[in-house]
UniProtKB/TrEMBL annotation:
Native species: Pseudomonas psychrophila
Every Alanine racemase N-terminal domain range: 20-223
The keyword Endoplasmic reticulum appears for this protein: no
UniProt similarity note: Belongs to the pyridoxal phosphate-binding protein YggS/PROSC family.
Gene Ontology molecular functions: pyridoxal phosphate binding
UniProt cross-references to NCBIfam families, sorted A to Z: YggS family pyridoxal phosphate-dependent enzyme
Protein's recorded name: Pyridoxal phosphate homeostasis protein
Listed cofactors: pyridoxal 5'-phosphate
Positions bearing N6-(pyridoxal phosphate)lysine: K36
Domain of life: Bacteria
InterPro entries, A to Z: Ala_racemase_N, PLP-binding_barrel, PyrdxlP_homeostasis
Function: Pyridoxal 5'-phosphate (PLP)-binding protein, which is involved in PLP homeostasis.
Gene3D superfamilies tied to this protein: Alanine racemase
């Protein structure tokens, strides 16, 4: 068994245990392999071990991998900050975007989504911890943004994404993720997706309702940003 395959098995065991601990159906929780800075060969190993969904932060890097891995039926998720000049490629080459935080970007994604593809699955990124350095919509602006995005024709609003301020304190983790869940519930729009939880806090995220956990380091090892 490769190191990556072994890591995937360990993470899947953590997901199952976390689901069992709060009596959730493990099939409602999906693993998104965060593969930024990792070579296509690593993604191919992860695919061989059963992973189908991959999250990328950097468009140019992601497009190169998509070309190299075109023989595999992978589902691509864009999870990084979005610049206006990158929306066309994202709209054309991804199935999910987890990091929409303003209407201008959503409108461009809708306008540029090819008509022969299904609507683009969208999560609104919420800056739940109020960090100035972090992307995400202000929670106070969320209802209006969600209502506007839900009306765009080539998008399907699925839910929320958040990256709370890192902490090893389980109570603080729970509180941040619970806030995201409460924000989604308060929209009363029947949304089905909470993209939250990473390698260090996936158990807390699952306890608070995560449906996608975005795991990079625990699958692929530490990132080499020199390769980004």
């Amino acid at each position: 068994m490769s190191t990556i395959a072994g890591n995937i098995a360990q993470v899947e065991a953590r997901i199952r245990a976390a689901a069992l601990a709060v009596q959730r159906d493990v099939t409602s929780i999906h693993l998104l392999a965060v593969s930024k800075t990792k070579p296509a060969a690593a993604l191919r190993e992860a695919y061989a071990a059963g992973v189908r969904d991959f999250g990328e932060n950097y468009l140019q890097e992601a497009r190169a991998k998509q070309v190299e891995l075109a023989d595999l039926p992978l589902c691509w998720h864009f999870i990084g900050p979005i610049q206006s000049n990158k929306t066309r490629d994202i709209a054309e080459h991804f199935a999910w975007v987890h990091s929409v935080d303003r209407l201008k970007i959503a409108q461009r994604l809708s306008d540029q989504r090819p008509a022969d593809l299904p609507p683009l699955n969208i999560c609104i990124q919420v800056n739940v911890s109020g960090e100035a350095s972090k992307s995400g919509c202000n929670p106070a602006d969320l209802p209006a943004l969600a209502a506007a995005i839900s009306g765009l024709p080539r998008l399907k609003l699925r839910g929320l994404m958040a990256i709370p301020e890192p902490t090893e304190d389980r109570a603080e983790q729970d509180a941040a993720f619970a806030t995201v869940r409460t924000l989604q519930e308060s929209l009363n729009m029947g949304l089905d997706t909470l993209s939250m939880g990473m390698s260090h806090d996936l158990e807390s995220a699952i306890a608070q309702g995560a449906t996608w956990v975005r795991i990079g380091t625990a699958l692929f090892g530490a990132r080499d940003y020199g390769q980004a």
